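We now fix the convention by which a protein and its fold are recorded. Think of the row as the fold of the chain written in a discrete alphabet. Here is one such record, which you should read through line by line.
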Amino acid sequence: MTTHLRRAGVTSAALVALAAAASAPATAAPATGSDAAASFLAGQFAAGRHELSSTYSGQTYLDAGLSADGILALTSAGVAGNEAGAATTAFAKGVGDYAVPGTDVYAGAVAKSLIVAKAQGQNPRAFGGVDLVSKLQGLEEPSGRFSDVSAYGDYSNAVTQSLAVIALQKAGAPADAKATNYLLSLRCNDGGFRLADDGSACVSDPDATSFAVQALAAAGGHGADVTKAVNFLATKQNADGGVAGGTGTTTPNANSTGLAAVAFTLGGQDARAVKAQSFVASLQYGCSFPAAVRGAIAYDRTAFAAMKSAGASGKLAGNETRATSQGLYAFTRAPLVSLTKGGATATPAISCSSEPTSSPSTSTSTTSAPKPTSTSSSNSTSTSATPAPTSTTSTDATAAPTSTTSPSAPSTSTVPQSTSTTPATGPIVNTDKVSDNTVPFGFAFGAVILVTAGGAVAYARRR
């Protein structure tokens, strides 16, 4: 048994069946948009006893990092508050094993857990018996870098750094200038940010850049840097609105696009954020799909086409929960620093009574997330890494619980504090990632990445 992934006593098929059998809440929502995505995620949480799981090689494991991402996604959507609260309670019980197992301390996991705690109105200094604020502050090196302390090595990277800056800002204990200066040292000439500080040629990573935008905006005083980073992301957006990730995730996908939508909004590029929403909306399973998958967001167009081709026999492939957790941000466009517990406590039931039977290409939702008053400050998220169960090599830092936030971000941030998940201006259309549509690539918000390398399974972590 590992510390951050535990073998679950149910199969993926069982999880789907349990989700489909969950009792319907009082409220109803169309099968597309943020409410539908949240309904799907809440059903997965309920089926897994308030925890989310990842499946690899036919084995299902409880995934703390994915649970954190799911909690944050529900908070962003502003619905299913009861399930988000139950999931937070379950997450807190295992936060020690996830973020500070034994003598190890993982910066990304600590940061993400702190964000989850604050977002859900919990005390981050006593969350699951852990003082997450002190733990995170204690990981900052003289250079300003937040690094892991572990016998397994240091998996911290640009996402970790961003999450740390966001988490401390959210906790009312802003990181010092050294922390943001270190993050800026990871910027490449094209304005984007590299993922790893490994001495290699600087190549910008869209996902790392999206998180950096949130962090710099949250810290405040970096309007020009945010603009440069968002301009880089603009060069990576396809005509259909999709955005691809870095190495290993070069296909336009829901995770990268959801993250970019938040960055575009923070950078004042609303038209691009709307295009990102449209792309993600085109990947959401609507009423023409089996009930067990409705509301979920496919990782990419290939995955969506496969599900559509399967017809009534379509089943979850295993990466939809991760893709939905990050793709949902394309609807809400809310930065991590602004997430605050509130909104509807009930989980909306997906209704198909008035929807067309064809699969959606855009969402009909009309809610929109608050638009930041300036780009000079923004919010970002960080990632954490925990030792992989049987990993032979690890390349990224990842997998950490999402943070909760009871108090709103400090006054030094201009990012709107939202108690619901209304998306930014414009028509609504509907990290960590998945690679090749089969293996969870957990990128955004701390998921465990399972990568096949030379025939051996390497558990890479980004957040």
